[in-house]
Amino acid sequence: MSKTYEFLKECGIFYVATVNQNTPAVRPFGAVMEFEGELYISTAKNKNVYDQLAKNEPIQIVALKTGTRDWIRLNGKPIEVHDLDIKQAMLDACPNLAKRFNKECDRYALFKIAEMNSFISINGEFVMLD
Known about the structure:
Blueprint: H1 3-11, E1 14-20, E2 23-29, E3 32-35, E4 38-44, H2 48-54, E5 59-64, E6 71-81, H3 84-93, H4 95-98, E7 108-122, E8 125-129
Antiparallel strand pairs: 1-2, 1-5, 3-4, 4-7, 5-6, 6-7, 7-8
Protein backbone atom coordinates (compact mmCIF):
# COMPACT_ATOMS: atom_id res chain seq x y z
CA MET A 1 0.00 0.00 0.00
CA SER A 2 1.14 3.50 -0.71
CA LYS A 3 1.94 5.92 2.07
CA THR A 4 -0.63 8.33 0.62
CA TYR A 5 -3.43 5.77 0.88
CA GLU A 6 -2.35 4.64 4.35
CA PHE A 7 -2.28 8.22 5.60
CA LEU A 8 -5.75 9.02 4.21
CA LYS A 9 -7.21 5.84 5.74
CA GLU A 10 -5.70 6.73 9.12
CA CYS A 11 -7.24 10.20 8.94
CA GLY A 12 -10.68 8.83 8.16
CA ILE A 13 -12.01 12.12 6.83
CA PHE A 14 -10.24 14.06 4.10
CA TYR A 15 -11.22 17.15 2.12
CA VAL A 16 -11.53 17.35 -1.65
CA ALA A 17 -11.12 20.77 -3.25
CA THR A 18 -12.63 21.39 -6.68
CA VAL A 19 -13.57 24.48 -8.65
CA ASN A 20 -17.24 25.45 -8.86
CA GLN A 21 -17.30 27.87 -11.79
CA ASN A 22 -14.78 30.46 -10.50
CA THR A 23 -15.10 29.62 -6.81
CA PRO A 24 -13.19 27.02 -4.80
CA ALA A 25 -15.37 24.31 -3.25
CA VAL A 26 -14.13 22.00 -0.48
CA ARG A 27 -16.03 18.99 0.83
CA PRO A 28 -15.40 16.22 3.37
CA PHE A 29 -15.00 12.69 1.99
CA GLY A 30 -14.36 9.43 3.77
CA ALA A 31 -14.35 6.73 1.08
CA VAL A 32 -10.95 5.99 -0.41
CA MET A 33 -9.44 2.89 -1.95
CA GLU A 34 -6.16 1.82 -3.44
CA PHE A 35 -6.58 -0.69 -6.27
CA GLU A 36 -3.72 -1.99 -8.39
CA GLY A 37 -1.53 0.90 -7.29
CA GLU A 38 -4.08 3.64 -8.06
CA LEU A 39 -6.02 5.84 -5.63
CA TYR A 40 -9.83 6.08 -5.96
CA ILE A 41 -12.57 8.21 -4.40
CA SER A 42 -16.32 8.08 -4.95
CA THR A 43 -19.40 10.25 -4.79
CA ALA A 44 -23.01 10.31 -5.89
CA LYS A 45 -23.89 11.59 -9.34
CA ASN A 46 -26.65 13.82 -7.98
CA LYS A 47 -24.15 16.02 -6.11
CA ASN A 48 -22.51 19.17 -7.47
CA VAL A 49 -19.09 17.71 -6.69
CA TYR A 50 -19.74 14.96 -9.25
CA ASP A 51 -20.12 17.55 -12.03
CA GLN A 52 -16.90 19.23 -10.94
CA LEU A 53 -14.94 15.97 -10.77
CA ALA A 54 -16.35 14.82 -14.13
CA LYS A 55 -14.76 17.85 -15.83
CA ASN A 56 -11.38 16.18 -15.18
CA GLU A 57 -9.89 19.42 -13.90
CA PRO A 58 -7.15 19.20 -11.28
CA ILE A 59 -8.27 18.71 -7.69
CA GLN A 60 -6.54 18.85 -4.34
CA ILE A 61 -7.09 16.57 -1.35
CA VAL A 62 -5.97 17.46 2.17
CA ALA A 63 -6.24 15.70 5.52
CA LEU A 64 -5.02 16.17 9.07
CA LYS A 65 -4.46 13.28 11.47
CA THR A 66 -6.58 13.71 14.57
CA GLY A 67 -4.59 14.69 17.64
CA THR A 68 -1.46 15.55 15.63
CA ARG A 69 -0.11 18.25 13.39
CA ASP A 70 0.64 15.66 10.67
CA TRP A 71 -1.06 16.44 7.37
CA ILE A 72 -1.12 15.48 3.72
CA ARG A 73 -1.83 17.40 0.53
CA LEU A 74 -2.16 15.73 -2.83
CA ASN A 75 -2.87 17.05 -6.28
CA GLY A 76 -4.29 15.02 -9.11
CA LYS A 77 -6.71 14.73 -11.96
CA PRO A 78 -9.97 12.82 -11.41
CA ILE A 79 -10.82 10.29 -14.12
CA GLU A 80 -14.23 8.62 -13.94
CA VAL A 81 -14.11 4.84 -13.88
CA HIS A 82 -16.98 2.71 -15.21
CA ASP A 83 -15.42 -0.75 -14.71
CA LEU A 84 -17.90 -2.71 -12.57
CA ASP A 85 -15.18 -4.86 -11.00
CA ILE A 86 -13.33 -1.79 -9.74
CA LYS A 87 -16.59 -0.23 -8.56
CA GLN A 88 -17.31 -3.41 -6.60
CA ALA A 89 -13.81 -3.34 -5.12
CA MET A 90 -14.56 0.18 -3.80
CA LEU A 91 -17.81 -1.03 -2.24
CA ASP A 92 -15.92 -3.90 -0.61
CA ALA A 93 -13.22 -1.54 0.67
CA CYS A 94 -15.77 0.96 2.02
CA PRO A 95 -18.76 -0.91 3.46
CA ASN A 96 -20.62 2.33 4.26
CA LEU A 97 -20.91 2.95 0.50
CA ALA A 98 -22.48 -0.47 0.03
CA LYS A 99 -25.37 0.67 2.24
CA ARG A 100 -26.27 3.31 -0.39
CA PHE A 101 -25.02 1.87 -3.69
CA ASN A 102 -24.38 -1.29 -5.65
CA LYS A 103 -21.88 -1.53 -8.49
CA GLU A 104 -24.59 -1.04 -11.13
CA CYS A 105 -26.36 1.86 -9.41
CA ASP A 106 -26.84 4.81 -11.77
CA ARG A 107 -26.06 7.31 -8.99
CA TYR A 108 -22.73 5.76 -7.95
CA ALA A 109 -19.61 7.41 -9.40
CA LEU A 110 -16.02 6.30 -8.98
CA PHE A 111 -12.95 8.37 -9.80
CA LYS A 112 -9.31 7.37 -10.14
CA ILE A 113 -6.86 10.09 -9.15
CA ALA A 114 -4.42 10.28 -12.05
CA GLU A 115 -1.27 12.40 -12.40
CA MET A 116 -1.08 12.36 -8.62
CA ASN A 117 1.61 13.87 -6.47
CA SER A 118 1.40 14.07 -2.71
CA PHE A 119 3.22 15.87 0.06
CA ILE A 120 3.18 15.00 3.73
CA SER A 121 4.25 16.85 6.84
CA ILE A 122 5.09 14.65 9.83
CA ASN A 123 6.51 16.29 12.93
CA GLY A 124 7.16 19.42 10.87
CA GLU A 125 9.15 17.57 8.20
CA PHE A 126 7.84 18.10 4.66
CA VAL A 127 8.29 15.12 2.29
CA MET A 128 7.07 14.34 -1.22
CA LEU A 129 5.44 10.89 -1.52
CA ASP A 130 4.62 8.40 -4.27
